[in-house]
Design a protein that fits this description.
31% of the residues lie in helices and 25% in strands. It is α+β, with helices and mostly antiparallel strands. It has one domain (3-197): Maf protein (Alpha-Beta Complex), CATH 3.90.950.10. The model has no long low-confidence stretch (mean pLDDT 94). The structure holds thymidine-5'-triphosphate (TTP). The site of thymidine-5'-triphosphate (TTP) has 25 residues, from helix 1, strand 5 and helix 5. Thymidine-5'-triphosphate binds next to helix 1, strand 5 and helix 5. It catalyses: dTTP + H2O = dTMP + diphosphate + H(+); UTP + H2O = UMP + diphosphate + H(+). Its EC number is 3.6.1.9.
């Protein structure tokens, strides 16, 4: 279990498992040449703890996702990630209905907010390594028509903060500071550092 291949004369390469149900994360990981051998969603409670900061929340959930899947796949490298949209110290929800998305968009309108990404890699030894990334996003002021138009698109569904920068919401983004891929769901530079740092080979 947990071994993907045995190169001639070498040691087995542990499998790379992505602990995610997000198709975006699979695409992002593929983009940098680390095709996961397996994708396995981690079913965890994503409720913020009392007084938990957005940054800490993203880190904790990334580790919990990776750990949960690592228990089911011992001996593998397991990558987990979490994306948190924060307005000040307030953690915005993942929008599952239009009313929630509308509240988020009204809050983000005309302001700058932060997007925190946590990425955790649990190694075959069971130990997690963690990176945290922060991006800043500045939205233009949104009028009621723009908000209604965006809500009708449905693109907000399942997205932290009620928008997806990789889609129509790009029209609202005046500026970003920091990692773009972090906002979409997986900070690719830091993910590469984690994977390479733990000895996961390209295309493992
Ligand atoms: C802000 C923003 C978030 N998102 C997405 C990324 C994440 O999929 C989602 C935040 O929820 P997460 O809980 O980070 O991830 P998830 O539930 O979609 O998937 P997983 O199984 O890995 O836990 O919001 C975008 O796609 N674009 C954006 O611009």
């Amino acid at each position: 279990m947990g071994e993907t291949s045995m190169p001639t004369g070498g040691t087995p390469i542990p499998m790379l498992v992505l602990a995610s149900a997000s198709p975006r994360r699979v695409d992002l990981l593929n983009q940098i040449g680390f095709a996961p051998d397996l994708v396995a969603p981690a079913d965890i409670d994503e409720t913020p703890l009392k007084d938990e900061t957005p940054a800490r929340h993203a880190e904790r959930l990334a580790v919990e996702k990776a750990r949960k899947v690592a228990i089911q796949h011992p001996g593998c490298f397991v990558l987990g990630a979490d994306t948190v949209v924060a307005c000040g110290n307030r953690i915005l929800p993942k929008a599952e209905d239009p009313a929630t998305a509308e509240k988020c968009l009204k809050l983000l309108s005309g302001r700058r907010h932060r997007v925190f990404g946590g990425v955790a890699l649990v190694g075959p030894d069971g130990k997690p390594a963690l990176r945290r990334v922060q991006s800043v996003v500045v939205f233009k002021r949104l009028d009621a028509r723009e908000i209604d138009w965006y809500l009708a698109s449905g693109e907000w569904h399942g997205k932290a903060g009620g928008y997806a920068i990789q889609g129509l919401a790009a029209r609202f983004v005046r500026e970003i500071i920091g990692s773009y891929s972090n906002i979409v769901g997986l900070p690719l530079f830091e993910t590469t550092q984690l994977l390479v740092g733990r000895g996961v080979r390209l295309g493992a």
